[in-house]
Amino acid sequence: MSRRERKRRKSKFLRFWLFVMVLLATLAGGWYFLLGRLYERVHYEEASAYTNQPFKGEGVINILLIGNDSRQNGEDGRSDAMILLSINDKTKKIYMTSILRDIYVEIPGHDGNRLNAAYAYGGAELLMETVEQNFDIDVNRYVQVNFEAFASLVDAVGGVELELSTEELEYVNGYLVEYNMLTQRPEGTDYVNTSTPGKVHLNGAQALAYSRIRYIGTDFGRTQRQRKVLEAVIGRLPVALAKGPGQLVNGILPNLTTNLKRNECFWLSFQAGKLALYDIEQGMIPVEGSYLDATIRGMSVLEIDFDKNKEYLQGIAGGK
What we know:
Helix content is 47%, strand content 22%.
């Protein structure tokens, strides 16, 4: 091959890659614009103490997912569920760790109390600060969802299929009584057949009712059910997005409150392909064998071995 031909091929190669780069930049610009429009539908609420804190540290991103029992945006409800989402580049895993709300903790600026009291006192910001202080991990970002968003998320992916016992089916109908009253739906709407335990397809309202059951296996069983629903939803998200994101956008985004910034959401969206290959691992705080039921100042709480639980949590979420 002559020098002139090599030069011509090199020129074509450079033009090709220039074209690819321009195309990617154009797509990225279009996606950034679209993401910006979507982001505007989310309720951004700054946690002032964490505004300048890094989004990612030591190869781990920690986002506290807060399930609020409010029916509208805001902090007028309790933190009904708390799950620490840890994206760990070192282990190539995504960890979903439920943190039980009845754990007795020290709350900055207040007397010791149940963990979910921190949310009642100072919203998501104080809850993050309380988790950080008691477990020595960095938690700088949160996403808060209300009942409406949770049900809409499940409906947007076409529902979830889970294994339910007869007792769980009966409790689902019990919780639907309250949900139907609150949402002004006719009595009996979405009731499940209690005579057919096993694999059951649940819509949004039914999955929400299932996730709220705490009388089977106490709060430990309830948090396990919440993680099962979330894992099932995550598994169905790619198909739902391929069919069209309209229902996800319209049903969920207006019911989300977060301190995630626009550029952080943009970064996460571009990591989606890589993150889809990560294994998902579930866990719970307190870890097995590290707690006792106790009564403090008339409150039924969980007293935990903080050293054991710090060791577990720092292993997946990093230390301060």
